[in-house]
Specification:
With 374 residues, this protein is mainly alpha-helical. The protein has a domain at 61-97 and 146-344: MetI-like fold (Orthogonal Bundle). Helix content is 61%, strand content 3%. The protein contains 14 helices and five strands. A hairpin with a 5-residue loop joins strand 2 (23-24) and strand 3. Helix 4 (139-175) crosses helix 11. The radius of gyration is 29 Å and the shape is globular. It starts with a strand and ends with a helix.
Length: 374
């Protein structure tokens, strides 16, 4: 092998370290240090793994290898199943019964001094595992109903804000000029007003109309971040060749936006929508805590915290069970959003399987072995 470059000074260890030189092998080809070789190996392994797979399949494989996202998704699914199967569903035209014997409005005889009957050692559930309030409402049934309402609200908020933000951002980014200026100044106006204050004012006006109407109103307030992200993506995508080809073919602006540009920005939209839903449950909780959200006789997790805040020191079980499930829902959705972000990011290496990681580690050890032989 012949070293390319200036000869190192006598006694220097630089020339003996293969990691600091570019070498010519016997065939005359150039090889680089382990960092460049490692990058090539990673790229080759990744290309081999995704060969012949669609973009959706590649994203799915990356997502299911994100341990935090998969654990969070499992916990969230189990939580949703528990909420909707325990006391049944009573919304719109859907009326089902659950396996739990009480509902959230039923008054029951006081047991165990209203304290939870749930015991871990020895394991025992009892009639009221989460306890009761002063008048005999079962807290488990109330928390399950509160979860149902909070989950419904965050889903509606996520859907409405995603639709509004995507449309406004796409139209502003595609047409630019005066349309972009008007829509972005509208977005700025919504942004500069504190979200909780604006939501409290509008939520108070819609408080008596039901949870669904409240969710629609809140969804119309938190679309601004997504609109800016989509606008940036569309500004970049509108200059691509496939958009020019669609224009030449005579496609309308609406068809170009919704059939050609937005499908290529789906990663940004999905990730942002997921994180928006995590913020939505905290916003709904804050409004319900201020008595501007879900109103009695219905309940949400935030309204339960507000109802029992004075009992947090004497009967903490009335307070911390709704708080625990708010934390669970918000954290799991955030971790799922992180997993989706990594899955859609082509720079992530999370998709490498065990065999690929072993091959990568073996390639990293080759230069060290070569240095020892020298």
């Amino acid at each position: 092998m012949t070293t390319i470059g200036p000869t190192p000074p006598p006694g220097s260890s630089v020339g003996n370290d293969p990691r600091n030189s570019t070498l010519l092998d016997e065939s005359g080809s150039t090889s680089v240090g382990p960092n460049g070789s490692e990058d090539r190996v990673e790229n080759a392994i990744e290309l081999k793994e995704v060969e012949g797979l669609s973009q959706g399949r590649i994203v799915f494989r990356r997502f299911i290898r994100h341990k935090g996202a998969m654990i969070s998704l499992t916990i969230l699914v189990l939580t949703v199943i528990l909420a909707f199967s325990s006391i049944g569903v009573d919304a719109l035209f859907i009326h089902t019964t659950g396996w739990w014997k009480y509902n959230y409005t039923e008054l029951t005889p006081i047991e165990n001094g209203t304290a939870p009957t749930l015991s871990i050692v020895p394991f025992h559930i009892g009639n009221h595992p989460f306890g009761q309030d002063d008048v005999g409402h079962d807290i488990f049934a109330g928390v399950m109903r509160g979860m149902q309402q909070s989950i419904m609200i965050l889903l509606v908020i996520g859907l409405v804000s995603t639709v509004i933000g995507t449309v406004i951002g796409a139209v502003a980014g595609y047409f630019r000029g005066r349309v972009d200026t008007i829509l972005m100044r509208l977005t700025d106006v919504v942004i500069i007003i504190p979200l909780v204050v604006l939501a409290a004012i509008i939520g108070h006006a819609a408080a008596g109309s039901g949870s669904f109407v409240l969710a629609l109103v809140l969804g119309g307030l938190i679309w601004t971040s997504l609109a800016r992200l989509v606008r940036g993506e569309v500004l970049a995508l509108r200059e691509r060749e496939f958009v020019d080809a669609a224009r030449v073919a005579g496609a309308s602006s609406a068809r170009i936006i919704f059939r050609h540009i937005l499908p290529n920005a789906i990663g940004v939209i999905i990730v942002s929508a997921t994180l928006t839903m995590a913020a939505a449950i905290l916003l709904e909780t804050a409004l319900s805590y201020l008595q501007l959200g879900v109103q009695r006789p219905d309940v949400s997790l935030g309204s339960l915290i507000n109802d029992y805040q004075t009992a947090s020191s004497t009967r903490p079980w009335l307070f911390y069970w709704p708080g625990v499930f708010i934390i669970i829902i918000a954290l799991t959705i955030n971790f799922i959003g992180d997993g989706l972000r990594d899955a859609f990011d082509p720079r992530q290496r999370r998709g490498l399987n065990r065999a690929a990681k072993l091959a990568k580690a073996a390639d990293r050890e080759k230069p060290v072995a070569a240095a020892e032989d020298v």
